[in-house]
Design a protein that fits this description.
This protein is of the alpha/beta class. It has one domain: TIM Barrel. The protein is built from 13 helices and 11 strands. Strands 5-7-8-9-10-11 form a 6-stranded parallel sheet. A 3-stranded mixed sheet has the order 3-4-6. A two-stranded parallel ribbon has the order 1-2. A hairpin with a 4-residue loop joins strand 3 and strand 4. It starts with 6 loop residues before the first strand and ends with a helix.
């Protein structure tokens, strides 16, 4: 089945929600209108209710506010977190109008629909790497703040999952981690065990408190064995640019699938979309990856049941026409795969 990453270039909130339901009926997703407002930027959109956060509108960024109130704000935060005051960590309509319009549309949907509904949140590594302390250093390297923000994102994700569950479908939530594209470089000195611990903290929290399926999305190259070690239900990668890199991790991928994991193939280009792509060309590229899994001895029926199709990354930087074309291609490719006799 097909679904999306989140960000879109459009301005028409209700109209976009209707189009998404048409493009991805089995697993529709709520849209993030990143060209509409700085409040819908990835890290800003999920910052409400987190301690010490200051929004810098002109720079479209976040930073830590006054250090003299650090202890008091952290105490208040943990009181709410430990009391499981989920509503204190809500995502408001102001920062996510697409979420509210999407849920309202889903309530009115009288059709058969599908079994799933997808949401997304910024991942903890990307979030803490993007928030600077008063000295300009990312709070990713401040263990106390990093842990608090990760727990805050976990309970915010739980709030979102409960809202999505109101649709009657099973929620799927992706942790978006573009920062992991730089993992292992001199510009990203975070350690493997730290990444695994942070992602694991959110995954385990959600599994303890809800029945959502949890995915991890990274649109660049990374250490995929590290990502798979966190044991998400779904891993989403850019199959246009990085399929060969992903498939270097044979043992990890095989273990992941055999343990029940699913792969979301980011098969439609976004940043490098040309308009010359076709269902046949995308299908051929997808088939290359699936045949590699067959060569590894995996059962193709099982792999097909545990595969999703997505754009390579979010569509927020595309033109509206290109995004429309990309999602139409994705929808048609999904239909083509449904007719494929493997």
């Amino acid at each position: 089945m097909a679904t999306g990453i989140g960000s879109v270039p459009f301005q028409d909130i209700e109209g976009t929600c209707r189009e998404i339901s048409r493009w991805a009926p089995a697993m529709p997703f709520w849209p993030q209108f990143v060209q509409r407002s700085h409040l819908e930027d990835m890290i800003i959109q999920y910052s409400e209710g987190l301690p010490l956060i200051k929004v810098n509108a002109e720079e479209r960024s976040l930073s830590i506010s006054r250090l003299d109130v650090r202890e008091a704000e952290l105490v208040t935060f943990y009181e709410r977190f430990l009391a499981q005051d989920v509503d204190a960590f809500a995502v408001s309509r102001e920062v996510a109008p697409g979420l509210y319009a999407f849920l309202e549309m889903m309530k009115e949907d009288k059709g058969d629909g599908g079994l799933y509904i997808k949401g997304q949140t910024v991942g903890p590594v990307t979030f803490t790497a993007g928030v600077k302390d008063p000295k300009g250093k990312p709070i990713l390297y401040d263990p106390e703040l990093s842990e608090a923000m990760t727990k805050g994102l976990a309970i915010k994700a739980l709030w979102q999952v409960r809202k999505l569950a109101g649709s009657g479908r099973r929620p799927v939530i992706f942790l978006d981690e573009p920062y992991l594209s730089g993992f292992g470089s001199a510009f990203s000195p975070v350690q493997r065990h730290e990444v695994v611990a942070m992602l694991g903290m959110i995954i385990n929290y959600l599994r303890e408190h809800c029945e959502a399926l949890i995915g991890i999305h990274c649109c660049g190259n990374t250490d995929w064995s590290m990502v798979l070690e966190t044991a998400p239900d779904i891993v989403n990668f850019d199959a246009v640019e990085y399929m060969d890199h992903f498939l270097l991790y044979k043992d990890s991928v095989v273990r992941f699938i055999e343990a029940g994991g699913a792969i979301a193939w980011g098969i439609v280009p976004t940043a490098n979309f040309t308009g010359q792509e076709s269902v046949d060309s995308l299908f051929s590229r997808l088939k290359e990856g699936l045949m590699r899994l067959r060569q590894w001895g995996l059962d193709m029926d099982q792999v097909a049941q545990r595969s999703l199709l997505t754009p390579a990354c979010g569509m927020g930087t595309m033109t509206g026409d290109a995004a429309n074309s990309a999602m139409t291609l994705l929808s048609r490719l999904s239909e083509r795969c449904g007719d494929w006799d493997m």
